[in-house]
Amino acid sequence: MKDLSLHILDIAQNSITAKATLIQIAIVEDTVADTYTITITDNGYGIPPDMLARVTDPYTTSRTTRKVGLGIPLFKQNAERTGGGLTITSEVGKGTVLTAGFVHSNIDRPALGDIAGVVVILVSANPSIDFVYTHVVNQQSYVFDTREVREALDGIPLNEPSVIPLLKEMIAANLEELQIG
Amino acid sequence: MAKVKSLADLKKMKEQLQSKVDLREKGEDPESRVQVKVAMATCGIASGAKTVMDYFLEELDKRSIDAVVTQTGCMGYCYAEPTIEVKLPGQEPVVIGYVDVKKADEIIEKYIKNGELVDGIIPMNYNTIDNQ
Predict the structure, then answer these.
(1) Confidence band for B123, pLDDT divided at 50, 70 and 90
(2) What distance in Å separates the CA atoms of residue A44 and residue A172, rounded to the nearest whole number?
(3) CATH assignment at residue A80
(4) CA of A33 vs chain B CAs: smallest distance (Å)
């Protein structure tokens, strides 16, 4: 993965596969404590305990098309490389929470990349799922919530081709103001 | 066009957007639209599926092709990522591997516009005379 936004895109696919109807992506930057935390929370069908114990093993996957599952291991590797780590908690029937912690100032922390593009791709490819993207930088924050966007658009589908670039523009403009690191 | 920055800005654009939706809905049936699915599992994303999907979202709209761009999982052709599946109205879907921006342009111009097959097709669901 070239950047953190691609990891987020990748992990969110797991939530989509788990039939989640609400996926929350949160990035919290704290330059004082020097932490950069990415949390992905879903209300999908959860991971059973025996599987949960093995999910960071690259030879674990629920797929049948191939025998390896590298999404979580690669994300974990990147987090650990900065002195951080990755944890997953899950409850069957309730959902899953994945947290990847990075050291903010560490040179090995990959750039965030095109997060606005990633959020928009997720929204446009899964119009029936709600997404909440929160980005906090110290005391300031921006929240993008498809439930609010749906209300504002009043019946216009989120995957309408002319809506997609507007959403991307909106997220990018707000993140720019937030001065994300 | 003014920059959209808040939900209020988005609301202001509603009428304009609604007219585009109405125009599209006259051709109702989703089967009559071109469907592009980009494989987006770890393997696809790592090899550039996001760039390819961005390109399709942008270019199909720009070139006024009525299409649905969505994503799918790993089809087992990790070596050939990014892979995409294109379904033209009334036809069998075609899976194409090693798609980058250049290839995507070729797919739009040749296959989607003219139905002309391009290199790189993965024979996932083809029929020979024997097994038909």
Answers:
(1) confident
(2) 28
(3) 3.30.565.10
(4) 30
Is pLDDT of A144 > 60?
yes
- Phi, psi values for residue B27, rounded to 5°: -90, 20
Chain B CB contacts of A159 under 8 Å are: 68, 70
Question: Looking at chain A, how many residues does it have?
Answer: 181
- The nearest CA of chain A is from the CA of B82 a distance in Å of 13
Class of domain B29-122: alpha beta
* Shortest Cα–Cα distance, A91 to chain B (Å): 23
Q: Which residue has the higher pLDDT, B21 or A109?
A: A109
Residue A67 pLDDT class (50, 70, 90 cuts):
confident
Q: Which of B14, B42, B75 has its CB closest to that of A153?
A: B14
Q: Report yes or no: B71 at the A interface, CB cutoff 8 Å.
A: yes
pLDDT, residue B22, reads 80
Task: Give the separation between CA A30 and CA A5, rounded to whole angstroms.
Answer: 18
Domain that residue A124 falls in: 4-178
As for how many domains chain A has, the answer is 1
pLDDT digits (tens, 9 = 90+) for A77-86: 999 999 999 9
Chain A residue closest in CA terms to B57: A161
In three-state secondary structure terms, A18 is coil
Predicted complex ipTM: 0.86
Secondary structure of A104-146 in HEC code, one letter for each residue: CCCCCCCCCCCHHHHHHHHHHHCCCCEEEEEEEECCEEEEEEH
Picking from B20, B40, B57, the nearest residue to A124 by CB comes out as: B57
**Looking at residue A121, what is its pLDDT?**
95
Please name the residue of chain A whose CA is at the shortest distance from the CA of residue B77. A65
Q: What are the boundaries of each domain within chain B?
A: 29-122
